[in-house]
Design goal:
With about 210 residues, the protein is an alpha/beta fold. The protein has 5 helices and 7 strands. Helices cover about 35% and strands about 20% of the residues.
């Protein structure tokens, strides 16, 4: 897939105010400081489109970007961020889960996991929740350039082993780096296939069929 245009569309805290669900949509989410904004900018080849910050928990809204005029990329607030009040965290979680379960055109949720660290309960719990809810997902291992190949392979194997305790068949996964564009073509090809399936679904379920 070639990215010709990528534009910020809107932000809100109410999933009901998202754009009309007529285009395929892909959500990106992960723990704070996982490198989500950098990954989004890398995928869309647009520096500064998604705002990066050294302050964890900066994203607090549902942020929609329209890509090639054909599909939406959604930047969601992170989970597992401890340095906010319990009330605020519950508000974020409610907003995120309402969006994920109610958004009709959501094709895949990409869950970002930091490849440098051991499996975290917050990541595993969130992935398991998506699975239990029957929501399509893919796991994206970030910051792969920060590790030796042996360490990267070992860390990813450890995460998959932990996930295998609750999954019979593991979700599709990608290994990425925002620094050197590792994984970019694989994710964009995955999205391109999802767009095709979404279009076929709409055609097969149109009123005239």
């Amino acid at each position: 897939m070639i990215i010709n245009t990528a534009e910020f569309l809107l932000s809100n805290t109410n999933p009901a105010k998202c754009p009309p669900p007529v285009k395929p949509e892909y959500a990106f989410i992960g723990r704070s400081n996982v490198g989500k904004s950098s990954l989004i900018n890398m995928l869309l080849n647009r520096k500064g489109l998604a705002k990066t910050s050294s302050t964890p928990g900066k994203t607090k809204l549902i942020n929609h970007f329209e890509v090639n005029g054909e599909w939406y990329l959604v930047d969601l607030p992170g989970y597992g961020y401890a340095r906010i009040s319990k009330k605020e965290r519950e508000k974020w979680e409610g907003m995120i889960k309402t969006y994920l379960t109610k958004r009709q055109n959501l094709v895949t949720t990409f869950v970002l996991v930091d490849s440098r660290i051991e499996p975290k309960k917050a990541d595993l719990d969130f992935i398991n929740w998506l699975g239990e809810a029957g929501l399509p997902l893919a796991v994206v291992f970030t910051k792969a350039d920060k590790l030796t190949q042996n360490s990267l392979t070992s860390n990813i194997a450890a995460f998959k082993a932990k996930l295998s305790e609750t999954w019979e068949e593991l979700p599709v996964s990608f290994i990425t780096s925002a620094e050197n564009s590792m994984g970019r073509s694989d994710i964009l090809s995955f999205i391109e296939a999802g767009n095709k399936d979404f279009k076929e679904y709409l055609n097969n379920n149109s009123p005239q069929n």
